Amino acid sequence: MTTGHVFIGMSVDGFIARADGDIGWLDDHSDPNEDHGYTDFMSSMDGFVMGRATFQKVLTFEGWEPPKPLVVASRSMHEGDIPDRLADKVSVTDAAPRLIMEALASQGWSRAYIDGGRLIRAFLSEGLIADITLTRLPVLIGEGIPLFGPVGGDIPLRHRSTRSYPSGLVQSTYDVVRSRAAV
Amino acid sequence: MTTGHVFIGMSVDGFIARADGDIGWLDDHSDPNEDHGYTDFMSSMDGFVMGRATFQKVLTFEGWEPPKPLVVASRSMHEGDIPDRLADKVSVTDAAPRLIMEALASQGWSRAYIDGGRLIRAFLSEGLIADITLTRLPVLIGEGIPLFGPVGGDIPLRHRSTRSYPSGLVQSTYDVVRSRAAV
Question: Which residue is closest to A134 within chain B, CA to CA?
Fold first, then answer.
């Protein structure tokens, strides 16, 4: 089956956005000239699966286009909600995580980038995430939208590597050890 | 004034204990033979300031004694609540964070180890923490007692160093950059 992979930035205190969705602080605490491996990561993916909230956020970035095929996981959106200019790159599904991954496997996807806090937790709970790369920006924002939350029990991780950058970002990659929840 | 220093273990998803205070999972995901620098850290401190909940937790560890003088910050405890065997090492104060640090400075303390989630956040909010060392254990526990929460606004950090251990622990030290809240 297609494996899920996470690559996400967050504050040291675990927030991926402010409560109103603002992510401007990510730019304030990072250096656009530093290569944090996103391009390499993305090139190893067959495409994305993204939650609705994250998709609606990226749509606010002028001229944004997905670098790979994108599936939006949403029970409230429909294909008609996709801007025409993106219609050939973006599809919408209301299927559950495991069924999404089965469908992607049948389309030949090996690896899918899973993006968005709620979606990542849902995929973690279902044992569908193979590895996670967390890049922590050197700031505490105190409140906002957390990446993590209940995931159906403990999920042991295996640390693969950590590196830090002159800007103060610390990036760790973990393999997800198959948990009870994955059985 | 005395500076505050944090040295604390947590899950990758930011929890320092389960909701019921259990910290047994810390042992399950670390290696007691690895030196994570606690002894060196502690030897550079003049003593601890600890929240009530954390103090009551450590009291459940048979024979536990603080390696340095300990001040328990609590508005509900009194000196009479301290076990007799610890009476010469432990005191109780109901003072606010800044007043605690002023009192410790007058007693000759340069550096205080600040321990316990709520207390750490209160000291961070008041600009009383100089640096934090976070040791992340390779597990997601999903829910529990978080280290972080509202701290009175953004607090920029300066990354000092990160190291990882064969057991999978990743330890980062940050200096707290003086924030608005500290003025």
Answer: B12
